[in-house]
Specification:
The protein has about 270 residues and is mainly α. It is built from 12 helices and no strands. The protein is about 75% helix and about 0% strand.
Length: about 270
């Protein structure tokens, strides 16, 4: 299907459903600018975006085709696996957030109590760190699933980088529990904050790219991640980052759940482009 023809047919279909572009934005969570460019024939959208728009318009994919061809892509086999990953990721994200908040509180206590914990507190901290890392791994798998659905390579790369970064940060935290002087560990923590901040910025950019599929919420979460990354890069504002981390993670959990809802809807064959 040619670019201009696709735009004309989507426009006609939207008007047939008596929907304005703004109303279609509400139903599909695709940005109004993207819809305008598609309808004007300025861009040839991704297959995933077409699927979202057709689903919002209540149109069967086969009836929208100009030929009887159906695109055979790996995506036709992905929904079930991705849907399961997203549901697990939602639960894991909530667990990760709880563990992260508790660990952040313990970090403050560790600083105030002279860094002299006994075996029980050290064991508790190590256990929570393990729980946090495992939870984050499954949480990030949800974004990897979304990257497959919406063909967002940057999101996949960022998710993998953050998994590695989370494991590294946990190892650093655990390995410094017995350190008595903070002066001896500030350099590795500063480097960790800078690297993690850079990865958060990349992740935020990837979330902003996801807004065509997951709506305005994804853009807001992306902006928060970028702000979080900038704060971490400064190093000196490290503890302030928790103020941004909590709402950003909550929004990301909601995005994953919306992705789960989207993939839970009945799917149809994907139209052939070209």
């Amino acid at each position: 299907m040619q670019q201009s023809e696709l735009g004309k047919r989507l426009t006609a279909l939207r008007k047939e459903r008596n929907l304005t572009q703004e109303e279609l934005v509400e139903k599909s969570h695709v940005s109004v600018r993207t819809i305008q460019r598609i309808e004007a024939g300025e861009v040839l959208p991704r297959v995933s975006t077409i699927r979202i728009l057709l689903n919002a318009l209540g149109e069967n994919y086969e009836s929208f085709l100009t030929t009887n061809q159906v695109m055979e892509t790996p995506q036709t086999n992905l929904p079930t696996a991705n849907r399961n990953n997203l549901l697990i990721a939602v639960i894991a994200g909530a667990l990760y957030l709880i563990a992260e908040v508790i660990l952040g509180t313990l970090d403050i206590l560790w600083m105030e109590e002279g860094r002299n914990w006994g075996f029980r507190m050290n064991a508790t901290y190590i256990t929570l760190s393990c729980v946090m890392v495992i939870a984050y791994f499954f949480f990030a798998q949800g974004f990897i699933a979304l990257s497959n659905v919406f063909e967002n390579k940057l999101l996949k790369v960022a998710a993998y980088l953050l998994i590695v970064g989370t494991v590294g940060n946990a190892i650093l935290d655990v390995s410094t529990l017995s350190v008595e002087s903070f002066e001896t560990i500030w350099i590795p923590y500063a480097l960790s904050a800078i690297i993690t901040g850079a990865m958060s910025i990349v992740f935020g950019m990837a979330l902003i790219q996801l807004q065509d599929g997951m709506g305005e919420l994804s853009r807001v979460a992306g902006i928060l991640e970028i702000v979080l990354g900038c704060i971490l890069v400064t190093v000196v504002l490290f503890f302030v980052s928790y103020i941004i981390l909590i709402p950003a993670t909550v929004l990301e959990i909601i995005i994953l759940y919306r992705g789960y809802e989207y993939l839970s809807k009945p799917t149809e064959p994907t139209p052939q482009l070209g």
